[in-house]
Amino acid sequence: MHNVINVTDNIYWMGANDRRISLFENHFPLQFGVSYNSYFIDDEETAVMDTADEAVLTRYFENLEYALHGRKLNYLIVQHMEPDHCAGIAAVAAKYPEAKIVVNAKTLTFLKQFFPEAKTWPDRFVVVGNGETLQVGKTSLTFVFAPMVHWPEVMVTYDSTHKVLFSADAFGSFGALNGNIFNDHADMRANISEYRRYYTNIVGKYGMQAARLLKAASGLDFKIICPLHGLILRQDFAYIVDKYTKWATYTPEDKAVMIAFGSMYHHTENAVEILGAELDRLGVKNISIYDVSNVDCAYLVAESFRCSHLVFAAPTYMNDLYPQMAHLLHSLQAHGLKNRDVALIGNGSWAPQSVKIMNGFMEKMNDMRLIGSVEFASAVDDHNVEELKQLAANIAASLQA
Q1: Which range marks the domain in which residue 171 is found?
Q2: What does R_g of the chain's alpha carbons equal in angstroms?
Q3: Which residues touch 222 (CB under 8 Å, ≥6 apart)?
Q4: How many domains are contained in the chain?
Q5: Cα–Cα dist 245/199, whole Å
C-alpha cells in the first residue's frame, strides 16, 4: 500500500524504510535500518527524483503509481548512480516508456555500465550540464554538479520555484524514519551521531569536495533540504551546516579524548584504564574508551572525527600491529583524517613494534601531532605508571592550549 507524504503543495516524499538491513554497503552496521528517500514533483508535468534500493522497489512503485493518479511520468531525474538509489531505473524505463531520463554525462556512462540494456535507449536521455535548468511545468530545476560527494557523477538539484534543495547523499543519515519525516518533528540533534557516522564513513574522504558543495549551497535560497537518506530538513540549518563544515574541513567538534585500544590479555587495557583515571584526576571530562575488537570500526572513525585528541594503544602481534588496530588506522588514513593531537601506547613482550608502526601511520597522515608515547614490556610496572601519568599530563596540557 502506498505511503506518500506532502513536502510542499506539489512535492511529495515517496520513500521507503528498510528495517531488516543490518549492514549498509554490506559492511557498515545498522542498528535501526535506513531510509531510501525519493521525491515526486506534481506540476503540469511530472518528475520523480531518483529510484531506490531493490529491497524496497515494490513500495517505490506503489508510491509512484499513487502519486501519478493515472497521469504519465514525464521525467526520471537521476542524481546518483549508486545501486541503493538507482536499482529501479530499468523498471521505471520499462513501465513508463514516455518518460525522459535526466542525467549528466558521467551519470550516463555509469547507467550504461549498470544497465547494459540502456544502450538501446538513445532517445530517452536528457543530458544536462552543470548549472543548466529544466522546466517541469512551472517548476524550475537547476542542476549543480557535486563530484565525489561521494561518487564522481553526483549532482544535486535546486528547485528555485519552491525553494527546495534535493541534496542527493549530502545531509543524509543512517536510520529508518519513524513516522516523522521532517527534522522539526523529530529530535535530529539527539541523533546527530548517526549523521556523523554516515558522513564520516561514506563521504569523509572527500572533505574538499564536500566543502565545495557547502559553498555552492550557501548561495542558494532554500527553505527545505531533501536528502536521499534520513530526515527532510526544514529548520536548524545553521546547526547542520556547522556540523558538515567541521566534518568537511576535518575540524574537531569537541575538545575530547578518544582512547582506542587492542588487548589480548588485558595488559594493554590496564594501561588504558590507568591513563583514563589519571586524565580524570587532572580534570579532563570528555573521555571515551573503546576496545577495537568489540566496537566496529565505523563507530571509531566517526568518533575520531568528533574528538580533538586521540590515543591509540595496542600490542605487537606477529612482529606487526594488532590486526584490529591496524584496520582502524588504515581506515582513518583512507578517510583523510587530519589535524589531531595523538598519543600512542605500545606493548610487546619481545621485539616491540607497535608504537613504531602506529607512528608510521600518523606520519603518512596530515597534521597528526604526536604529543607523547609509552611503550612497556608485557605488563605495566611502577615506572610505566609514571610514564602514563606524564602522558596524561601532556594530553591535559594540550587540551588547555
Answers
A1: 5-248
A2: 24
A3: 158, 163, 164, 165
A4: 2
A5: 11
Q: What angle do CA 375, 312, 243 make, to 5 degrees?
A: 155
180-219 per-position pLDDT tens digit:
999 999 999 999 999 999 999 999 999 999 999 999 999 9
Of 231, 248, 265, the domain-final residue: 248
Q: Which residue has the cell 516524499?
A: 13
Note whether 174 and 34 are within 8 A (CB): yes
Looking at the structure, do residues 322 and 369 belong to the same domain, yes or no? yes
141 and 281 belong to one structural domain: no
pLDDT tens per residue across span 238-292? 999 999 999 999 999 999 999 999 999 999 999 999 999 999 999 999 999 999 9
Does an H or E element contain 327, and which? helix 323-334
pLDDT tens by residue, 151-182: 999 999 999 999 999 999 999 999 999 999 99
- Which 8-state DSSP code applies to residue 383? H
What would the pLDDT profile of 363-385 be if each residue is shown by its tens digit? 999 999 999 999 999 999 999 99
The chain-wide mean pLDDT, for the chain, equals 97
- Cis? peptide before 383, omega within 30° of 0: no
**Is there a single domain that holds both residue 169 and residue 149?**
yes
The whole-angstrom separation of Cα 301 and Cα 118 is 38
Q: Cell digits for 115?
A: 544497465
223's grid cell:
527553505
Separation CA 276–CA 313 (nearest Å): 12
Q: Which of 193, 228, 248 is the last residue of a domain?
A: 248
277 and 233 within one domain? no
**Cα–Cα dist 297/310, whole Å:** 14
Distance CA 11, CA 162 (A): 9
pLDDT per position as a tens digit, 100-147: 999 999 999 999 999 999 999 989 999 999 999 999 999 999 999 999
- Say if residue 240 is in the same domain as residue 208: yes
141-146 LR contacts (CB < 8 Å, sep 24+): 141/41, 141/47, 141/77, 143/104, 144/213, 144/216, 144/217, 144/220, 145/104, 146/170, 146/209, 146/212, 146/213, 146/216
